[in-house]
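Deliverable D5.2: sample structural annotation.
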Amino acid sequence: MKKSIAVIFGGRSAEHDVSIITAHLPIIQSLLASGQFEVWPVYITTEGTWYCDQKLNEISFFQAPDVAENLKKLKPVEVNFTNGLTLIWPGLRPKTVSIDVAFPAMHETYGEDGSLMGLLRLANIPFVGCDLEASVIAMDKVLLKQVTEPLGIPSVPYVWFTTKMWQEKAPELRKEITKLSYPLFVKPVHLGSSIGITKVEKEGELENAIEVALHYDTKVIVEEGVTNLIEVTLPIIGNDELELAYVEQPLAEFFDFDKKYMDGGKGKTSGAGSGYSAIPARISDELIHEVEELGKRTYKAIGASGISRIDFLINGKTNKVYVNEVNTLPGILYHHNWRQKGVSGVELVTKLIRFAEERFATQKALAFTFRSDVLSTVSSAKLQNS
């Protein structure tokens, strides 16, 4: 009997459309091609409505100009999280499907940030990718540095603040920022795909860049740019035993959203790695080794499991390597890189499902409850006097 896999995508996120691409191109297509799974596409709209219909397995459904009208023709699905994940289509004869493994494909807010992982943990179901804790750490660019820097994992100098801090202490924060060397990069702390990120060449551009970042997030980081910059990235999969893809090198100085996901901004979806990067990276074997070692240390430090991508900044003159970010749901799973490594799309998704089931089995063996007599010893009088 085929396992039922729920691929969950969309959501209330700035990367809603990227999530649709990730869900279909490497995940749903590969799951269907394997012939091993019954695939249930679970789509969450930007308003938070959940849908599930086999029609949603086709990316062409979302590319149609009348997609909103077509969605209205479908009935929203109800989801039961009681000791498992059950999809329910209400009616006189309700249809139900019990899900064996969830495959999150929701980028950023309410998905990759740990929100969905917490929900799936409560449902007591295996799910692909990083667990709650690693997702939270990786999503917060400041928290990531605060966790990894004490372990000797290097990152560039930075200043961070919240909306309230900027409103109340802007002069002091500007003074701190002057200690950083230009160019600077101003980023929303919890977003990816270069959304809301501005490269600042001079002081006069700083205020506008901060305003843009605060439009997307209540927490902002200002980072010092790396001179003689070489950017590389390393996809990793696994739980305890890690498997590394190639170290990959983008071929442009700075990638905005269009350069990552569109063909020259002309409206044609391309996906990372489609001619915009070198695989393997054009750096020395020594640097490749250092990146791989730092990647494994970072993956372990935040408790990553299943899949992640570690991004690095290198000073090409000094060969100093800095960990920049961790992405726990790499766009399109970076399947283009794994393919060059000899791992097909089908093999990649089946590996990720196996990792999810292995982690779930390990967690299931743990005790999460503890019986005591504490309730019987508490009286109303004691509570009133406490």
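Annotation notes: The chain has three domains: 3-129, 138-142+145-153+226-328, 157-224. The longest helix spans residues 345-364.
The annotation will be released with the project's public dataset once the embargo ends.
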